Amino acid sequence: MNVLPTEIPEVLIFEPRVFEDDRGFFFESFNERVFADKTGVNTRFVQDNHSRSCQNVLRGLHYQIQQPQGKLVRAVVGTILDVAVDIRRHSPTFGQWVSCALSAENKRLLWVPAGFAHGFLVVSEVAEVLYKATDYYAPSYERCILWDDPDLAINWSLAAAPILSPKDQAGKPFKSAEVYP
């Protein structure tokens, strides 16, 4: 497993070793020992999530203010632009974001640690996204930052207006959002 750094040291891109032949392919998408060695994080994943979305659907920027979730994200169908935003007030990278294309073809995974808001844009006709979470979904603690917040200035590389849920349309501006200490 190859691990690529991003501009935010805690957010990492994992490139699995893929074995392909005329029958198809095989790769190990998660190995607890390798994950701990590469990230320095000894965590337990408690929930696996799967979403399917059509082109131009933008989900995010989501986080839980309590029971924060670390997420290991991958696209198993199609392509997404995955985004992580550091919302830890005392972090040297507070308010900064990184993005990464995840696709069924490149088989990359993105590690989004607890303390980050997360979102993605579907750039292919359809995408299916799987992600492991380090804590359980807790709707009462769920928060959302506006995807197009001018202070964050995320470059989503939009080809058309995004398709948003009512929750994502009602996200808070970054300046007034609850963040981590």
What does the model show?
This protein is mainly beta. The protein has one domain: Jelly Rolls, CATH 2.60.120.10. It has helices at residues 32-39, 166-169; strands at residues 2-5, 12-15, 18-21, 24-27, 47-54, 58-64, 71-77, 79-86, 97-103, 109-112, 116-122, 126-133, 142-144. It has a six-stranded antiparallel β-sheet, with no helix packed on it. A five-stranded antiparallel β-sheet has the order 9-8-11-6-13, with no helix packed on it. A hairpin with a 2-residue loop joins strand 3 and strand 4 (24-27). It is globular and about 50 Å long. The model has no long low-confidence stretch (mean pLDDT 96).
Considering the chains and any ligands shown, give keywords for the structure.
mainly beta, 5-stranded antiparallel β-sheet, 7% helix, 181 residues, single chain, 6-stranded antiparallel β-sheet, Jelly Rolls, 13 strands
List the helices and strands and how they pair.
Elements (H helix, E strand, L loop, with lengths): L1 E4 L6 E4 L2 E4 L2 E4 L4 H8 L7 E8 L3 E7 L6 E7 L1 E8 L10 E7 L5 E4 L3 E7 L3 E8 L8 E3 L21 H4 L12
Antiparallel strand pairs: 1-2, 2-10, 3-4, 5-12, 6-11, 6-13, 7-10, 7-12, 8-9, 8-11
Shape: globular
Strand order of the largest sheet: 1-2-10-7-12-5
The overall pLDDT average reads 96
What radius of gyration results from the CA coordinates?
Answer: 16 Å
Question: Could you name the CATH homologous superfamily?
Answer: Jelly Rolls
Uncertain runs with pLDDT below 50, 5 residues or more?
A: none
